[in-house]
Amino acid sequence: MVRVARPCILIVEDDARYVRLLHAILQQHDYRTQSAGTGARGLELIASEAPDAVVLDLWLPDLDGLEVLERMRQFSDAPVIIVSARDDEADIVRGLEAGADDYLGKPFGVPELLARLRAVMRRTPQAQVQIASPFESGDLRIDFAAAEVSVAGKPVRLSATEYRLLQFLARNAGRVLVPDQLLENVWGPEYVGDEHLVRVYVSRVRQKIERDRRNPRHLITRPGVGYMLRRHESPHAQSSD
User: Rounded distance, CA 143 to CA 147, Å?
Assistant: First the structure.
């Protein structure tokens, strides 16, 4: 009989009470767990153990959690849920902009944490291959089979959630999609109504695929309505004249 490896969750948190709580909750629901009490140790474990997801506190004794997040995004695309008492909107936006996939304020409900973990872990490009032929529009190219994005021939590194957002927009190129459509299809139905997620992630994707994000050519906002990915003629297309 083949045993399927249980997903591994890394807890980066220096509050021993929360670490014990998270270990107990996650192990009870068939996750493997590891923990780190400092940001430096967390980065070491992310690099060496390649966890399936990271639960990250912002208050750490050595590094700010946002710095940990920014450093890990240089070498890891593992989904990250920030769990912190710093739950005002500015901190939430900063965390998302730094590369977090979700944000939970302390105290949190166990069902909500488990639901958020399931949601971020199913956002893998490999699990979402639905189009065989690449999408090409101007200098933007999305190879769905390989889950690779390039602009003007140069590879673009996207997080799993950024890729899913761009992929869904590409599947619906030329159509304006309202925020709740994006939330339901990219994040999951439990996120409908959470429009700041869409705003933050659209901004992050624009930073990576647009030459001038203030005057976007590919990912367009229709004020008061939603977002659309334009389909331009490929730069190597030849005139028929």
Answer: 6
Rg (CA), the chain: 19
* DSSP codes, 46-73: HHHH--SEEEE-S--SSS-HHHHHHHHT
Cβ within 8 Å of residue 196, ≥6 positions away: 89, 92, 93, 96
Architecture in CATH for domain 8-121: 3-Layer(aba) Sandwich (3.40)
Rounded to whole angstroms, the maximal C-alpha distance in the chain is 72
Specify the 3-state DSSP secondary structure of 34: strand
Strand-pair category, 219-222 with 53-56: unpaired
Q: Is it the case that residue 2 has pLDDT exceeding 80?
A: no
CATH number belonging to domain 126-229: 1.10.10.10
Q: What pTM was estimated for this model as a whole?
A: 0.66
Q: What is the pLDDT of residues 195-213, one digit of tens each?
A: 988 999 999 999 999 999 8
Q: What is the pLDDT of residue 218?
A: 95
The mean of the pLDDT values for the chain is: 86
